[in-house]
Write a structure and sequence with these properties.
The complex is a heterodimer. Chain A is elongated. Chain A is mainly α. Chain A has helices spanning 4-10, 14-20, 25-36, 40-49, 53-70, 73-87, 94-113. By secondary structure, chain B is of the alpha/beta class. Helix content of chain B is 47%, strand content 20%. Chain B has an eight-stranded mixed β-barrel with strand order 11-12-14-15-16-17-18-19, surrounded by six helices. A five-stranded parallel β-sheet of chain B has the order 2-1-3-4-5, sandwiched between helices. Chain B has a five-stranded mixed β-sheet with strand order 7-8-6-9-10, sandwiched between helices. The chains are: A mainly alpha, B alpha/beta. The interface between A and B is medium-sized, with 21 and 17 residues.
Chain lengths: 114, 566
């Protein structure tokens, strides 16, 4: 079961995330769990795989909002980076970046299940 | 139609906020932050947001808007909110992590931003509270600056905004426009006030739609008069055509417009619209021309009238005004007998020559100077009565005008009593001519004033009878001694095909009420004899004599007339 300590060890800025949730730990942890189930990850993966940059940008942008609010820094940071690169229409190794994002998500999911 | 008086409905004092956010987690966090302070409506899509705005706009205090929605862009929703008169008053705070979007949002009317990730709850609440307070203050101001029927500016605020318009457009030619609906008082009478109000709202809506595209402002000044201040344009005929609608009844809205183009910014705002009003009045009775323009001729006339106003006090001081006297004859005896005279002011201006009373009297009536002029004439007249009494050996009563402005002046009775008493003549020597139209201004007030004058011993003549909205009620309720038939009344009766039936009816009516009748403007023997035959008591006009200077009148009196009893 996910705990605040585990999240902190994962690298999340729990003080900030909890602050937005008015220090309601149960509420915060519930939202973190929900965020990992977000269909946006699948959309992002599918769009990056098919090199649909517009769809990839929209999915990344949406994820960035909620991940940022929960202060899940290890996932938020690569998602934010990916979003800005896609916004600028720059060429980059998006698949590698997607890999990082999905790995961080899997790590956090494992914490939730462990 | 903008409902300026739309009041936000509060449930137990709690403001309601519409949160437009598609992301579940963001919605949850925001709800947690806001729910103890605000009542929250949630829209997850753009479509839902628009539906809620339409159904609940009256209950909302603020919109929190996410820019990325699944079905439409947040900026489009913002544009729809600000473009709809019903929702435009709502403040919108945009939630975004994208600083590039801020400029566009501000341009479209966003009030503030909340960044993503969200700042602390205290900051979010403070921003929302401040924005709501600002907008509610603005709503209160909007309440006071608007005409509640039409939502247009009222006069006072309109002039202020017009001045601001000048500041925003310092170099651009700007026009002042007055629009009046023709015969609007009849619309209310014929179709009812509710219909009349609907006409006014429709006209307001048309004008606002037409004018707003050129950065202009519109105001309902009073009743059916609208003012427009806008950058110079040339499609006023089209604007007027747009206003002149056929209603579902037989009624067709008709209006006239006066334009003062490329206003002179050296003169004050109200005067600019006075000029536009002059232009509108110039086409008042024209069926074909419904847009009038303030032009050089009007400008010259305005300057002329201004000079008259400026010179008034000098003229009084230097005795440029003189009093002429037109004889009045009692036509009841076999031979007409001089019975009194009417005092008429004349102005011999040192530079402008003889000025017609038809010009200066309406001008002085308009701004109150007529009181001073009337007082001057009264003093001259009583002095003249005394002089003639001494020189001719008998009293010649003099009629003097008492304008409607005088009638509203509380000390009128005292002034008249003092004037007459100081000259040492009886009050019956002064006949006070009160214009018929004064009665329609304020009947009750006039009745009271006339009563007090009559009780004090003055004779009262109702002047200009038959020119305005003469009513039987008026001549039965006003305590008067004589009815003076207007010159136009006489002219109409003796026009090409002589028809004196109405004249006869009025004279009989006066007789039945115990009133004398006086006919003015009588020019021929035929007219005089007909009036005499119809039972008219007194006749005045060029047939007997034009108005004369005092010395000539004295000679006239000596030479031509015999006195009753002589």
């Amino acid at each position: 079961m996910l705990t605040i300590d585990a999240l902190r060890r994962f690298g999340a800025n729990t003080e900030e995330g909890l602050g937005r949730c008015l220090n309601n730990e149960a509420f915060y942890l519930r939202l973190v769990n929900m965020s990992l189930q977000d269909a946006g990850f699948d959309k992002l993966a599918s769009a990056v795989e098919s090199d649909d940059r517009k769809a990839a940008f929209e999915a990344a942008h949406a994820l960035k909002g909620s991940l940022g609010n929960l202060a899940l820094t290890p996932i938020y940071t690569p998602v934010a980076e990916l979003t800005e690169l896609l916004r600028g229409g720059q060429d980059a190794d998006y698949k590698a970046m997607l890999g990082t994002i999905l790995r961080q998500r899997a790590e956090l999911l494992a914490l939730c299940e462990g | 139609m903008l409902e300026c008086c739309q009041k936000i409905q509060f449930d137990h004092g709690i403001r309601r906020i519409l949160v437009v956010e598609d992301d579940l987690i963001n919605r949850e966090i925001l709800s947690l932050m806001l729910r103890d302070t605000y009542d929250i409506l949630i829209a997850e899509t753009g479509k839902q947001a628009l539906e809620l705005l339409e159904s609940d706009y009256g209950t909302l205090s603020l919109v929190l808007l996410d820019l990325n929605l699944p079905d439409m862009k947040g900026v489009d929703i913002l544009g729809r909110i600000k473009g709809n008169a019903l929702t435009a008053r709502l403040p919108v705070i945009v939630m975004t992590a994208d600083q590039n979007a801020e400029v566009e949002c501000l341009t479209l009317g966003a009030t503030d931003f909340i960044s993503k990730p969200y700042p602390k709850q205290e900051i979010v609440l403070a921003r929302i509270r401040r924005t709501i307070e600002q907008f509610e203050d603005r709503d209160i101001i909007r309440w006071t600056e608007r005409d509640q029927l039409t939502g247009l500016y009222n006069r006072e605020f309109f002039y202020r905004y017009a001045a601001q318009h000048d500041e925003h457009h310092p170099e651009e030619p700007t026009d002042a426009i007055v629009l009046d609906i023709n015969h609007f008082h009849m619309v209310n009478e014929r179709y009812g006030k509710e219909f009349g109000d609907r006409v006014l709202r429709l006209v307001a809506e048309k004008l606002r739609a037409k004018v707003s595209d050129s950065d202009g402002i519109v105001c309902r000044k009073e009743d059916d008069t609208f003012l427009i201040y806008c950058l110079h344009r040339s499609d006023y005929g089209q604007i007027l055509d747009g206003v002149c609608m056929q209603m579902e009844t037989d009624y067709q809205i008709r209006a006239r417009m006066g334009v003062y183009p490329d206003v002179d910014r050296g003169i004050d705002m109200e005067r600019r619209f006075d000029r536009a009003k002059q232009a509108a009045d110039a086409v008042k009775n024209s069926y074909s021309q419904t847009v009038g323009f303030y032009d050089n001729a009007m400008h010259e006339k305005e300057l002329y009238l201004e000079q008259l106003l400026e010179d008034f006090h000098t003229a009084i001081r230097e005795k440029q005004f003189t009093v002429f006297y037109q004889p009045k004859f009692d036509v009841r005896p076999d031979e007409p007998v001089l019975c009194s005279t009417e005092a008429l002011a004349r102005w011999r201006h040192p530079k402008l020559g003889l000025i017609s009373p038809g010009v200066f009297i309406p001008l002085f009536e308009k701004n109150g100077l007529i009181r001073e002029l009337d007082s001057f004439v009264w003093r001259e007249a009583v002095a003249q009565i005394r002089t003639w009494e001494e020189r001719l050996g008998r009293l010649i009563p003099v009629s003097v005008n008492v304008s409607r402005i005088d009638l509203n002046d509380p000390p009128l009775l005292k002034i008249l009593e003092k004037t007459v008493d100081e000259a040492g003549i009886g009050r019956e020597s002064i006949l006070l001519e009160i214009t018929e139209s004064a009665y329609t201004d304020n009947a009750e007030q006039i009745i009271n004033v006339v009563k007090s004058l009559r009780e004090s011993g003055f004779f009262i003549e109702m002047d200009d009878f038959g020119t305005g909205f003469s009513s039987l009620n008026m001549i039965t309720t006003l305590p008067i001694d004589a009815l003076k038939l207007d010159i136009q009344f006489i002219r109409t009766a003796f026009r090409d095909r002589k028809d004196t039936r109405l004249l006869e009816t009025v004279i009989r009516l006066a007789q039945s009420l115990g009133l004398s009748t006086i006919a003015e403007g009588v020019e021929t023997e035929e007219q005089m004899l007909t009036l005499k035959a119809l039972g008219c008591d007194v006749v005045q006009g060029y047939y007997f004599s034009k108005p004369l200077p005092a010395d000539e009148f004295e000679a006239f009196a000596r030479e031509k007339c015999r006195w009753p009893g002589n």
